[in-house]
Design a protein that fits this description.
This protein is mostly helical and 74 residues long. Helix content is 62%, strand content 11%. Helix 1 (3-15) crosses helix 2 (18-25), helix 1 crosses helix 3 and helix 2 crosses helix 3 (29-43).
Length: 74
């Protein structure tokens, strides 16, 4: 698993927004979107519903985020 993709996913979860996650990570929103898409493709699950007002977790996304936030810090 790509750690940048995972870190990006957790930022989106925390902020609820691809744009806000991009600002926190000092990357473009399109980079955030590409990282999330890469992660979704790798695990074979849709993690987020993207819309104009932000991003919402899907059921698999909620489970993935819950498990991910219990990982030890690197």
């Amino acid at each position: 698993m790509n750690l940048e993709e995972f870190r990006t996913f957790l930022e989106v979860v925390e902020t609820g927004s691809l744009v806000m996650a991009a600002k926190r990570l000092n990357v473009t929103p399109s980079t955030v979107s590409a990282r999330i898409s890469g992660l979704e493709e790798e695990i074979g699950q849709k993690l987020l519903h993207r819309n104009k007002s932000g991003a919402e977790l899907t059921s698999p996304g909620f489970k993935f985020a819950a498990n991910g936030t219990r990982l030890p810090s690197l």
